[in-house]
Amino acid sequence: MQHEKKNILTYEGLQKYEQELHELKVVKRQEVAQKIKEAREQGDLSENAEYDAAKDEQRDIEARIEELEKILKNAEVVVEDEVDLDKINIGCQVKILDVEMKEELEYKIVGSTEANSLKGKISNESPVGKALIGSKVGDTVEVETQAGIIKYKVLEIQRSN
After folding, report:
1. Strand runs (DSSP E) across the chain, as ranges?
2. 68 pLDDT exceeds 90?
3. pLDDT at 147
4. For tag attachment on the chain, is the N or C end more exposed, with fewer CB atoms within 10 Å?
5. Residues 6+ apart with CB under 8 A from 40
């Protein structure tokens, strides 16, 4: 039996997924069922674009519900208040310095399902995240990227909440 991967989530991420799942199950399912019912009442389904669109939407909703249920079933929540601030771990907010570019960057380290680089959330499994995990303030880590090796100096570790 294959052991399913744990989805490491922050409490904020857990709440976001639970809310989305509730919204899909309670609101979106009803809406799409109503659209399908209305399209059926129009008669011939073979050339009914509204019916086809509603069925596609229903498939998408059910697929997302299944995906969210799988994420939540295997969720392991990081209690951010208990995160050890001596070293970088999931749930930390970190400030690092790109040594070459002299540029300060700030990231929140999260599990892979929550990662969103546009919002400054990087995965513990990403190259930068992997390199930073376990580092302490003052450490310099090297990250291998397509552009070569980038060095980051850890400036600050704090709770993200």
Report:
1. 7-10, 75-78, 92-98, 103-110, 121-123, 140-145, 148-159
2. yes
3. 82
4. N
5. 51
- Is-contact 88 106, C-beta < 8 A? no
CB 95 within 8 A of CB 101: no
pLDDT digits (tens, 9 = 90+) for 1-36: 556 678 888 888 899 999 999 999 999 999 999 999
- The span from the CA of 30 to the CA of 19, in Å, is 16
Cα separation, 125 vs 131, in Å, equals 9
Give φ, ψ of 56 to 5 degrees.
-60, -45
At residue 31, the 3 state secondary structure works out as helix
Distance separating alpha carbons of residues 106 and 95, to the nearest angstrom: 4
150-153 contacts at long range (C-beta below 8 A, 24 or more positions apart): 150/98, 150/99, 150/100, 151/98, 151/99, 151/100, 152/96, 152/97, 152/98, 152/99, 152/105, 152/128, 153/96, 153/97, 153/99
Residue 161 confidence (pLDDT): 59
d(CA 145, CA 20): 34
H and E: helices and strands count for the chain: 4, 7
Say if residues 74 and 67 touch (Cβ distance below 8 Å): no
